[in-house]
Amino acid sequence: MSKSESEIVDLEDRDPRNLSQHIQVSWSDIFGEPGSIRSPECAWSVSQHCFKLSRNVVYICFTVLCAPVVSCIMGACFACISFQYIWCLNPCLRLWKISCGATRNFVKGVTNGIVIPCAEACGYVLSQIRVRTSVMSDEKEENVEFLIV
Hints:
This protein is mostly helical. It has 3 helices and 2 strands, in the order H-H-H-E-E. A hairpin with a 6-residue loop joins strand 1 (129-135) and strand 2 (142-148). 0% of the residues are buried.
């Protein structure tokens, strides 16, 4: 039996979708000495090697100890979510959609037969209202007239 492309583990490119771009940290991303003050070259290079070594050793230790456990837990979590969606949520949504079909047809008929004609009639009546404003020069008050044509 041959493995599909998704089952083959690529040991070279372990982040093909760039999920961890934001945590790629190197020595130069953290430390930098300005030109005006400098530590001795031996201290700088030893510090750089200590940083890289400790980062790699601690990462490997955590990976060896924790990665299988975390992978099992995450696999179980995604299996539960998949089970819930496939066997519980999807059938319930389908049942709800079937059950609401008659209600949808009833509401659609009422809307087309009653609500839309009433709304169109109200819209026609309200579209015939004209507002005219004028300012009377003697009293300096604004007079507003509503005309229904």
